[in-house]
Amino acid sequence: MKERLSGNEAVATAMKQINPDTVAAYPITPSTEVPQYFSSFVANGSVDTEFIPVESEHSAMSACIGAAAAGGRVMSATSSQGLAYMFEMLYVASGLRLPIVLICANRALSAPINIHNDHSDSMGVRDCGFIQLYSENNQEAYDNTIMAIKIAEKAHLPVMVCYDGFITSHSVENIELLDTKVVREFIGQKKLDEYLLDEKRNISMGPLDVQEYYFKHRIELAEAMEQAKDIVKEVSDEFYKISGRKYDMFETYKLEDAEYGIIALNSTAGTIKDEIDELRENGIKVGLLKPRCFRPFDYINIPEALKNLKSLAILDKADSVNGFSGPLFSEITSAMYYKKLNVKTVNYIYGLGGYDIKKDDIKKVFDEIIEISKSDKEFKVKRYIYNEMEGK
Amino acid sequence: MIEIRWHGRGGQGAKTASLLLADIAFNTGKYIQGFPEYGPERMGAPLTAYNRISDTRIRIHSNIYEPDYVVIVDDTLIGTIDVLEGLKKDGAILVNTNENIEDIRKKLGGFSGKIYTIDATKISREYLKANFPNTALLAAIVKITGIMGKDELEKNMKEAFLHKFARKPEVIEPNMQVIKKAYDEVIGG
Fold this sequence. Notes:
Largest sheet of chain B: 7 strands, mixed
Number of strands of chain A: 15
Mean pLDDT of chain A: 97
Number of helices of chain B: 6
Strand order of the largest sheet of chain A: 3-2-4-5-7-6-12
Low-confidence stretches of chain A: none
CATH architecture of chain B: 3-Layer(aba) Sandwich
Strand content of chain A: 15-25%
Low-confidence stretches of chain B: none
CATH superfamily of chain B: Pyruvate-ferredoxin oxidoreductase, PFOR, domain III
Helix content of chain B: 25-40%
Shape of chain B: globular
Number of domains of chain A: 2
Structural class of chain A: alpha/beta
Oligomer: heterodimer
Largest interface: A-B, 23 and 19 residues
CATH topology of the largest domain in chain A: Rossmann fold
């Protein structure tokens, strides 16, 4: 069905169609509308979810952990400081291998306080053991939310669905919705193996692990994340059959014959696609790679897709203060090094606190990396896409 | 693709107007974007909202820097902020004002492009007994852009109002009067 919805409305609609057992959430801009819309679905009886309006995000994730451990299908939503406040419980969720789906409308972290979009929040928790799916627009946010349920339950791992705060969360755009019946058939009933409310089999979750058990469990968690790649692909292929929309670990746009490449997450990818079309009209062969899945990360096929480039720009919407680079750059260039791929690569930190990225900015990025590809001179690796304010 | 930038003040409904315009353009089969630029929101503070309307899928996700149309919800914003910034040479500006076009042109520094005016505040006061100029401006911008004809506009607005004012059905008819009046009364070019 064709609709026009904001990203938050789209995700809340997906949640209504999923009809989870439990949703526990605490409001924070720009994801507030997700639990807000969802609580109205609870109130008007269109879902039979147990909605727990908790007093903090720490409690939201704690309640999700309890409900998921008990055997429920569980969801929550947050942003920014809310995700930061969940930090310690995120590790508990993944360590206990609980298939919780957490919606993250990406927003900058304080201080200074800022409600706008960047990826500091989800990148800040990238090592916590959640699968991370990134979404270019409302359609991808909706689709990823539905797929996340199935991926989480198959991988026995929690999943975070990320999309840009305000840019996607509050912008109304066209979208294709699936029938609720189709969504429910796709996700099916949750298959229960080990859960706390199993009266036939008593288990405990989260007791003390001594050294060798702890390490073993951490290795198992890493292996589960590695194996989740196949699950992401498998679920995406199944989703294609019901929707006609193709998803994979990453998407490429006109990259096959490109000489110059660019990599970016979420909504910026759309702006880049428009600029690529314009540059190609002038005969400049440029292409995009958009990671959809940041955890697990496709360390094998991403470098492979970049191997014919003369130069590459990797855009990070999060800084690593005094790190050699932003997070996306470090992951990708490490994988490139391992594959002995020597493409000149520049890291652009952009859009912090919602600082708008325009087509012109993308053009300048391409201009710079084309220049770098032609020169033997050393170049500055980490750059900021920022124009000094006049007179301030 | 048509790109529209709305300038209003917090509380005047510029954001609602952009979302309503997206809504009715969607109903005619267009691809749409409607989004406000959230700043430090306060009643009366300058606020910007945007629309993109296209026959093909819209991928760009930046703000609008070179609009085809600018809508001024509050004419006291002229001179306060650069409302003409980036407006295309063959673009047009629609102003809610009780002044005539030549006076507005002077205030816009002799702007040589198309100027349209409508006294949306007066229309709103007359039919809605309150200052909600956004509905009248919505009808005016639809006429100027030719996104849809008057009949289609009325049909779509009626549907949108039935949804939006489901709990206040008594305000639907006055708002429909505003739509009709504003569509006919907008002048300029």
